[in-house]
Amino acid sequence: MKHFSSNRTITSFSSQHEPVYFAELGEVVEIETNDCYDGQVKTVDTLRGDFDRSRLNPATGPIYINGMQKGDTMCVEVLDIKTGNYGIMMAAPGLGPLGNSVSGSSTKILPVYEDHVEFNEKIKIPLQPMIGVAGVAPAEGEVSTAAPGTHGGNLDTKDIKAGNKLYLPIFVEGALAAFGDLHAAMGDGELSGTGIETSGVIQVRFTKVPFTIGNPIVEDDKFLYFIASAESYENAIHTALLQTTNQLASWLDLSFEDSYRLLSAVCDLKFSQIVNPLVTVRIAVPKSLLPESSQWE
């Protein structure tokens, strides 16, 4: 199995970056990742302003996937995630929606064990590792690894975890994928501005699928999650709703109005994160709705 070291990283997605790793379609690869602080925070004495911010959210890559072309859709099957042995959670004035109520900066270093994270002597959090940054080069320009978008990026969606699949639209030859920002656990919304930030190693498989999408989609055993990001909640929700309604209408041979009604009856709106430069939401669609002939079955 190929091993891609975390000593080759990017802090932006761009078609101008030269690939540093190469993978084949169908190949399983192992990708080592740094934490979102790039290893700069190791003790509680390091606070939110004490590190080089230009190094934040390093993503291992770019990875050139042979056979991926512009206009394709790539499936990233997440096979395994192994986290580091500690996680980091910071609080600071201005960080997260309640940052104005935080009086001073502080850092917690949380031990990570085989099945849980020790928050304190009384509270143990189940270990639920996920990938925060997973993306490909955008169609144009340069996008920070701190930002989400149609290319993926900093989606901070807790369903991007072992056993699930992430589908991404491809904008450039070879995809130029990169991954990072693992969390040992994170709730929907990433409400304080941080998950349990950690390093680790992931195993993924890249494949090409025979349909096109405009925004990332995540699949688990029961649901498809249609993801959208925008500067406002309203715009992110509108994009996700429109994408999902149109897709259901196509798959189920429904009018737009009936698809919209169906979405309201059985689908759920979830907030992935509300703290990045763009907010990210997702619509959960039960796979039981889809016909047996669907590519998702």
TrEMBL record:
Pfam families, alphabetized: FmdA_AmdA
Molecular function terms, GO-annotated: hydrolase activity, acting on carbon-nitrogen (but not peptide) bonds, in linear amides
InterPro entries listed in its UniProt record: FmdA_AmdA (IPR004304)
Protein name: Acetamidase
Organism: Planococcus halotolerans
